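In the laboratory, one determines a bound structure by crystallizing the protein with its ligand and collecting diffraction data. In a computational setting the workflow is compressed into a single prediction: the sequence and the ligand go in, and a structural description comes out. We illustrate the idea with guanosine-5',3'-tetraphosphate.
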Amino acid sequence: MKLLEEKIKKDGRVINDNVLKVDSFLNHQIDPQLMNEIGKEFASSFAAEGITKIVTIESSGIAPAVMAGLYMNVPVIFARKRKSITLTDDLLTASVHSFTKNETNELAIAGKYLNENDKVLIIDDFLANGEAALALVKMVKQANASVAGIGIVIEKSFQPGAHKLKEQGLRVESLARIASLSNGEVTFITEKMEELV
Ligand code: G4P
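The predicted complex, in C-alpha cell form:
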C-alpha cells in the first residue's frame, strides 16, 4: 500500500536492525485518515471471503481493525491481555510470548462472541515472529469458527512470522512488507524481489 509505505518512510524511525518505531501514527498517536485507508484496503482484499467477525489484540490492533470492521460491516473483537473483572465465563484463551518485549501474556476472549458459523478475519499492527497471530488463530479454533485470513499492517518479512502462518495454509495479506531495517533504513519488498522468491 503506497500511502502506508510513504508514511513509514516519512515518519517511521528505525531503532535497530529489528525494530521500527511508528508511534506517531500507529502505536501511540493514531492517524485516523491513514487508518481509514487501511480499513478500506483490508475490506477490499477480503471482500470475497464472507467475513462475519474481525478479531484483533489490544492495543495497537484495535484502530486498523475497527476501520476494517466499519467497511466490512462486521463486529470487531479484541483479545484482552489482562484479566478483567467482567471477563469471567466461557473464555477462549491462549498464552502469547513476545520475543520483542520478552514477556508472556495470557489472552482471553469471551466465548459468546464467536461461534462455529463465524468466518474470522484476524488483524494486527505488526507481524514479527507470528506469536500473537498464532495465538489468535488458536482462540478462533477453540470456538470452532474458521479463520478466513490474516490482515497485517506492517510485516517484517525478515522475521519468521509470515512464513509460519503461510505454512499452516493461512492467507496472509500485509499492507507493507519490510525486507530489511539494516543501516538505519527501511527497505520494502518490491515486486521484483517477490518474483525471485
Ligand atoms: P509476534 O507477535 O509477531 O511474535 O511479535 P513480537 O512478539 O515480536 O511482538 C510483540 C509486540 O511488539 C507486539 O505489540 C508487536 O506489535 C510489537 N512489535 C514487534 N515488532 C515491532 C516493531 O518493529 N516495531 C514496533 N513498534 N512494534 C513491534 P504489543 O505488545 O501487542 O503492543 P501493543 O499492541 O499494545 O502496542
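The mean pLDDT is 95. Keep in mind that any predicted model is a hypothesis to be tested, not a measurement.
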